[in-house]
Write a structure and sequence with these properties.
heterodimer; A: alpha/beta; Helix Hairpins; Rossmann fold; five-stranded antiparallel β-sheet; 14 helices; globular; B: mainly beta; binds zinc ion
Chain lengths: 486, 139
């Protein structure tokens, strides 16, 4: 055996996954160096481990050396095939066995190996644009500009289609791969804003364009833009969103201005596995569209579906998706749609554990799968209950997630109380939300919430702009920057 | 049940944030922080409960950072009144530059203003012209 035929498992030495980012490798090394430094740890064999650690870090911290090492691993057959990786973090591994119910939390993080994204994975995108009368002027102008920005950022093999709608739908650009950009631009610029709004027609036409292009092994997505209420076809919109979800086509629902129906756009987003976005000024549309398209580029599949089960007697208080904004998923309606398969996916579960005797319990389990059967992941979370155990401190990542979700839920309660006409309570709670936001360093949002709380006490409602800003501001709280991608 | 100290609501044991007011319920252990000047050798010890602001006191503008570097030549070293914030999530500590004029550096990398980054014991923080090594234990 030649010398280079034997190499130790550097990933195992550093206690990281082969999909770890450079940042994670650095962190792991720092932690282990402290543990194995010969000055600190004099146990037998430590010096050897310390040398191995240095060696592992030297290789894995250098992208070129790491790539060579990975290739060697692959040749040995010991590099994991799946580009998907799941990390499960719970608030506590051990809790005391109590005579009363208690709270427990689970964070599920999904990782995608960036090097595993097939280079030929193409996008299949349909833009569905509102062209009712209210879009006249800057609205339609910027919507067209946003569509053009998307066209400019297409790659070989991508498919694009554009649908516009008022009280009827019109296919402006039928789904196609090879696009004559000049012709396309001319078509887009011919869109005139006039007439009413019947969104279901737009969604329906958009879905058929997406299907026409063929949805297997492409990243399928609809971006829906509206600035107002749709008339009488809300249920049809939701039904179509559900259908889109089943087919693995998430819908990004973009509301422009302040006059649109937030509940409807939210329902369309959650039922299809998409996201709803708030764009207050038309000039922000091109960058919002571009950002979505860029996010889709890092996806390895269109959509992820989840099915969750819990042990008898355990209650799911809430299931949330944390990225890009906090969204509540309903766990009792199986399956739930989670969105494009990217590595920023984080799911957070709040559970109530019933009184149970000491023991080890599998509290929750789930299956995440991709509707076309490309990927499948199974996970579970277990908890040990022990007599007189002390609940330690929850990990930082759980605290961060729980903090975001707590703000989201507080805002939800304000909306509920407002809807029930409980003006005083809603206003009081909105003040608490303002205080909490101030503590978290969200001064601007806190100020808006404070002003709106007064308005709410006086008039029983919020200003349309304030309402949207609070709703989306509390969802998209960036307490910490997203993790560095390796 | 556990009672929220802020709003009085009853929550299930081990709930992390109050269901009624969203305030943190689990009071976590404070972290002892030692800041050692690499150039001059002096050190400052503080306890990190929720956050620590490092800067220069300015009573006129009612700016009172937890760590006041006026006595250590902070003005000459280009330290802003509110320069850097240390805060924590559980037992993890983060540093955030508060838009200081001369910037903050973590292990020789400049921090983007108002973008927190995790800090570990033994890391080097540079605030303007002052280099501090940070430790999370009592020295
Ligand atoms: Zn409370």
């Amino acid at each position: 055996m030649r010398k280079e035929d034997f190499k130790p498992d550097y990933y195992e030495i550093l206690e990281v996954s082969p999909f770890a980012t450079q940042e994670e490798i650095k962190k792991a090394y720092k932690r282990l160096v402290k543990k194995y430094h010969p000055d600190v740890n004099r146990a037998a064999g430590t010096a050897y481990l310390f040398r191995r650690l240095q060696e592992a870090y030297e290789v894995l911290s250098d992208p070129q050396q790491r790539q060579k090492y990975d290739e060697w691993l692959k040749a040995q057959g010991s590099y994991p095939e799946t580009p998907l990786w799941m990390e499960v973090i719970t608030s506590h591994r051990v809790l005391p066995s109590l005579p009363e119910p208690q709270a427990w939390y689970v964070l599920i993080k999904l990782r995608v190996e960036p090097r595993a994204i097939p280079a030929d994975r193409a996008l299949n995108i349909c833009l569905v644009i509102d062209r009712s009368t209210s879009m006249k002027g800057l609205g339609i102008e910027k919507a067209v500009e946003a569509a053009e920005v998307v066209l400019e950022n297409l790659r070989e093999g991508d498919v694009i289609s554009v649908v516009s709608f008022n009280d009827r739908a019109q296919v402006m650009l039928p789904a196609s791969k090879k696009l004559n950009h000049r012709e396309a631009r001319k078509k887009l610029r011919s869109i005139k804003a006039e007439g009413g709004t019947e969104m279901a027609r737009g969604i329906s036409a958009g879905l058929s364009e997406l299907m026409k292009a063929g949805i297997f092994r492409t990243i399928n997505h609809m971006i829906l833009l509206t600035d107002g209420n749709t008339y009488g076809d809300e249920e049809e919109c939701i039904r179509l969103a559900e259908e889109a979800g089943r087919r693995g086509i998430p819908i990004t629902a973009v509301g422009m201005g302040t006059a649109w129906n937030e509940e409807l756009l939210d329902a369309i987003a959650t039922k299809s596995g998409g996201v709803s976005l708030f764009v207050i000024y038309p000039n922000l549309l091109p960058s919002a569209f571009l950002e979505r398209v860029k996010a889709l580029r890092s996806a390895i599949a269109s959509s992820l579906r989840g099915e969750f089960r819990v042990m008898n007697g355990v209650k799911v208080k809430g299931l949330f998706r944390l990225h890009p904004g906090v969204e509540r998923l309903s766990p009792d309606r199986a399956p739930v749609y989670i969105g494009p398969v990217r590595d920023s996916i984080q799911l957070f579960m709040e559970l109530t554990i019933p009184p149970l005797p000491p023991g080890e319990y599998e509290i929750a389990s789930w299956e995440l799968s991709e509707p076309q059967g490309l990927y499948r992941l199974n996970g579970r979370a277990s908890l040990k209950l022990a007599e007189g155990a002390e609940a330690g401190e929850a990990p930082a990542e759980i605290l961060q997630a729980a903090e975001k979700v707590a703000v989201f839920k507080l805002r939800e309660k304000v909306w509920d109380e407002m809807k029930q006409g409980e003006r005083e309570r809603a206003s009081h709670r909105l003040k608490m939300l303002a205080a909490r936001l101030a503590e978290m360093g969200e001064t601007e949002l806190s100020a808006i919430a404070g002003t709106e709380a007064l308005k709410l006490a006086q008039t029983g409602r919020l200003s349309p702009e304030g309402q949207k800003r609070i709703l989306y501001g509390t969802r998209f709280l960036a307490l910490l920057p997203p993790e560095e991608k390796g | 049940m556990i009672r929220c100290a802020h709003c009085g609501a009853e929550n299930l044991p081990n709930t992390l944030f109050c269901e009624e007011c969203a305030k943190p319920l689990m009071k976590s252990q404070a972290i002892p922080v030692r800041l050692v000047s690499v150039g001059e050798g002096w050190e400052i010890k503080v306890v990190l409960e929720d956050e620590i602001i490092i800067g220069r006191q300015d009573p006129e503008r009612e700016i009172r950072p937890h760590v006041d570097l006026n006595d250590y030549g902070g003005l000459e070293k280009g330290i802003s009144r509110r320069h850097l914030r240390l805060f924590r999530k559980g037992q993890e500590v983060f540093a955030e530059d508060l838009g200081s004029v001369n910037g903050s550096f973590l292990n020789n990398r400049r921090l983007l203003s108002f973008v927190p980054e995790p800090v570990h014991s033994g890391d080097e923080l540079r605030l303007g012209g002052e280099v501090l090594q940070i430790f999370f234990e009592e020295g």
